[in-house]
Amino acid sequence: MDWFRSYHGAATDPKWLVIARKAQCTPGAVASIWWALMDYASSNTPRGSVQDFDAEVLDVFYGYEDGTVARVLGVMRVRGMIEADGKLEHSDRDQPRYGWERGGAWEMLRRAVFERDDYTCRYCGATDQPLHCDHVFPRSRGGSNALENLTTACSRCNQSKGARLLHEWRPEVALA
Asked: What is the DSSP letter of 11?
């Protein structure tokens, strides 16, 4: 299982109260959005980036009113929690680096998958969006980093699929 690092007191951080008031939502919503951002950023390339995070999908997933996540992200940007380059504040300092990080074996494997798949999302055919290396059988469910278990996915498909199997996510999708 992959992990990201949080901090003590994060669940009840007083800054959630201020952000919630400004974004017109509950502090619990702010905390849950922050953790979703940290989870996304910790596995994104570049590491720490939430530049292409899909706020609308998270609104739907959590059952929030349309626009809630976008409002929270806006307040977080104003407060400097999301930097101008789209990275979470202190993400380079706070999140540990492991051997499967950029420049290492994982980066070489990703490149091989992207080349094999002709830099095209295998789920929707997109070629004009940031690409991710998706585990067809998710690692959180026992999947491996074997080349046969990896495929190219655009940001939207990768985030939408999450840790689901293909038949759970979109039964009509079949890898060519």
From this structure: G
| Residue 169, number of CB atoms within 10 A of its CB | 14
Residue 87 backbone phi and psi in degrees, to 5 = -95, 150
Q: Quickly state the pLDDT bin for 48 (edges 50, 70, 90).
A: confident
R_g over Cα of the chain = 17
* Chain centre to alpha carbon of residue 30: 17
Looking at every residue in the chain, the average pLDDT score rounds to 84
Go through the chain and tell me how many residues it has: 176
Most distant CA pair in the chain, distance: 50
Helix axis angle for 68-78 and 15-23, nearest 10°, is 120
